[in-house]
Amino acid sequence: MRMLYLTLALIILAAPAAAQYSSQRDARNMAVLKAVVNVKIDDEENLKDMEKLRANQAFNRDLQRMLDKLDNSRTKNSKNKQVLDVLERAGNDIYNLLR
Fold this sequence. Notes:
Shape: flat
Largest sheet: none
């Protein structure tokens, strides 16, 4: 019986650590993704096209409408969650590729 209590105590104590590690890993993946995107946007091959895209008013309006759907002040709806999952997976893939 004592062993059961000890095991339960260890599980309860380890759960927050596992959640914290997962959260830190997700944050790491997002940071890697952002850093790599910033580097690739300024890449010589992409720079000209990026400047054209930034000047495209129709694209900027569409982009703003898309970003409005992802307002971080709202509760996490399914669209926000899906986008976040895609970004975390992409960040993880890039992290593993470049590591």
